[in-house]
Fold this sequence. Notes:
The structure holds two protein chains of two kinds.
Chain A: H1 2-17, H2 23-46, H3 50-70, H4 74-99, H5 114-136, H6 151-160, H7 163-190
Helix pairs in contact in A: 2-3, 3-4
Chain B: H1 2-36, H2 53-63, H3 74-94, H4 111-132, H5 136-167, H6 172-178, H7 183-186, H8 188-202, H9 213-216, H10 226-251, H11 265-286, H12 292-321
Helix pairs in contact in B: 1-3, 1-10, 1-11, 2-10, 3-4, 3-10, 4-5, 5-6, 5-8, 5-12, 8-10, 8-12, 10-11
Amino acid sequence: xxxxxxxxxxxxxxxxxxxxxxxxxxxxxxxxxxxxxxxxxxxxxxxxxxxxxxxxxxxxxxxxxxxxxxxxxxxxxxxxxxxxxxxxxxxxxxxxxxxxxxxxxxxxxxxxxxxxxxxxxxxxxxxxxxxxxxxxxxxxxxxxxxxxxxxxxxxxxxxxxxxxxxxxxxxxxxxxxxxxxxxxxxxxxxxxxxxxxx
Amino acid sequence: xxxxxxxxxxxxxxxxxxxxxxxxxxxxxxxxxxxxxxxxxxxxxxxxxxxxxxxxxxxxxxxxxxxxxxxxxxxxxxxxxxxxxxxxxxxxxxxxxxxxxxxxxxxxxxxxxxxxxxxxxxxxxxxxxxxxxxxxxxxxxxxxxxxxxxxxxxxxxxxxxxxxxxxxxxxxxxxxxxxxxxxxxxxxxxxxxxxxxxxxxxxxxxxxxxxxxxxxxxxxxxxxxxxxxxxxxxxxxxxxxxxxxxxxxxxxxxxxxxxxxxxxxxxxxxxxxxxxxxxxxxxxxxxxxxxxxxxxxxxxxxxxxxxxxxxxxxxxxxxxxx
Lengths: 198, 322
């Protein structure tokens, strides 16, 4: 009886300290959303219906955004929705509709690279997990003060400590952009070449 | 328990606004368009100047048979209207109409990002509808929707970034708190770019290429009937509410006015939103539809450079002030 009361008291205290959801509640939600995300991702790569794959990708990317939210990284979560769900998937669907988007199954939607793709995916996952575990093994993260991952903290960290990588990345993206334009113009020039002078 | 009650009450109010304001704008559109074209518009439903016309329309839509084409992808087809409509409800939660905590559904720390990110999702509804209908006109409509969104998302984001730079915050109430009257001439280019790009994202005339009725019937919504069609229409009008509300909050100072900013701030917000909604309707009756190439050209060669110039101007003035 007393132990039950004590548990209730600690639970109440924990709820008081951590706001609306108790820590275990957040963890449970994180796990469930993670399972949904994983399931959607698996369906994305296994379904034979092309457009359905793109739509399941929306679920997977949205689930990832919810995970960021649960980790209090609000800014990253909204950027994830803005860039991936709002733009990348729309671009993907646009490409699919422009080329070939049959309703129903496409039996030829399998390239035969399945084992290789699985190996690459597993290797990438292992590398990521190893890097994260190795990087944060002994790090203690200070939970007091402004929440890590809030817009203000992310902004000041990005533009104070990581300015150089940030700028390097933007130059890299610019180079990719210019490269894409060069490639697309090359094919445009090459197509009428047989009929023209050169 | 009190917190839960507070949250529930806010959500109920936001939901009521979400249901009422789009209908008010729809009815205003009926009447304003009619008078601009020398007609009377709806006059009978409800008695006084046909005020209940949209209610009657709603009843009519609810009675119609809900048809899914035989070749359509059933689940995607049926899900599409919800995907188109719900994001606007979520966005409405974050738009502040008055000063203080009491006049916004929920304060979102990264408000601008939240609002623009969620608004972008609703286009997925049109894409799903266009693809799943198994109709070539619908597919064309879906394609045009996607092309339009990809072109106009960028200037909209850049214009919003400019005002966030000016305010030094990305929270919507924070931006209105920082507002001064001289922001109006300072950010006017950004405001125009934001409003025009928003109109294009909503596919309102003159940017209604994706639903061009004289070419592709009704674009992505051709195969829809009954309640699902009504949901798409509701999404369009809810989109007008959200766009006008956002333009008000970001560029027109929200609840700030010559007087009464404390108690009557929400009246200013609603008034500015209503004026912008009138402009949206006005544009519909005054401008012809833009062709697809004109649409793309306007976005990439006019709006994007203007938005970038606005960001440069904002940066320069900001540094000069500091």
